[in-house]
Amino acid sequence: MGAQLRVYKQKITSAQTTKKITKAMELIAASRIQKAMTRVRASSPFARAVTRAVSAVATHSNTDHPLTHERETILRSAVVIFTSDRGLAGAFNSQILREGLQLAELLRSQGKEPVFYLVGRKAVGYFQFRRIASAAEWTGDTDTPHFSTAEEIAAVLLDSYDRGGADGGVDEINLVYNRFVSMMTQSPETVRLLPLEVVESDEQETAQVYPLYEFEPEAETVLDALLPVYIQSRVFNALLQSSAAKHAATQKAMKSASDNADKLITDYTRLRNNARQAEITQQIAEIVGGADALASGK
């Protein structure tokens, strides 16, 4: 009985230590998610303004720009997968990796070759373990993304798109990332980035009537200047959304772990008390039996 009591005591201590760790990680994630959401809200006005500008130029000009014109034959399609550098976030990374691989299978069924671009150590480790080739990788900047990372990713994607699938580049670009919906929900989202597909609009913007434009310089020059900025803003928004979703997933996972630790502590405490009560009962029974034996021997 004494050995059993020691085992239960060790398990209770271990669960209490685990709870302290998970509770601390939950609080850290809660503080980080507020900062991440502040950055997402701060970047939204700029992203909407760039979107409106690109929409206006693309809509009211007769220019057949390479970035807005879909190619006749799409040989290779880029799939940019945004994961995190760290784990302990529940199904955050697994669901986005599954979404990216499902998109790749869909592209193959359409006769397109998927080309993977990976953001985050979890995606890199996953693809390396399964020996799946990737065109480019970025790690170390997923918790608090910097705009320089978005610029680097956008430059690589634009260069690959300019080359085209026939010359080792790509003919279209897709982003796959987790979008922050709420503290409890992080939704995988797939967006075709190029050829240009403007998807960010609300009802007011949809109903807005754009004025007629006169371009100085030409509309093609305006698009050349606007579209790279648009691509950078979309990539940066995906990084920020993924970061906020990751912190929310971490907080949810750590809260669940803390609740499980509480349950383990309660269960082991009850088992320890039962074992202690059984030991006490056995000792009383031995004392009573010894007393009865002495009384009957007289």
UniProtKB/TrEMBL annotation:
Residues 254-281 form a coiled coil. InterPro entries: ATP_synth_F1_ATPase_gsu (IPR035968), ATP_synth_F1_gsu (IPR000131). The keyword Membrane applies. Its main location: membrane. It is found in: Cell membrane; Membrane. Keywords: ATP synthesis, Cell membrane, CF(1), Coiled coil, Hydrogen ion transport, Ion transport, Membrane, Transport. It comes from the Bacteria. It is a peripheral membrane protein. SUPFAM superfamilies: ATP synthase (F1-ATPase), gamma subunit (SSF52943). Pfam families: ATP-synt. Produces ATP from ADP in the presence of a proton gradient across the membrane. The gamma chain is believed to be important in regulating ATPase activity and the flow of protons through the CF(0) complex. Belongs to the ATPase gamma chain family. HAMAP family: ATP_synth_gamma_bact. F-type ATPases have 2 components, CF(1) - the catalytic core - and CF(0) - the membrane proton channel. CF(1) has five subunits: alpha(3), beta(3), gamma(1), delta(1), epsilon(1). CF(0) has three main subunits: a, b and c. This is ATP synthase gamma chain.
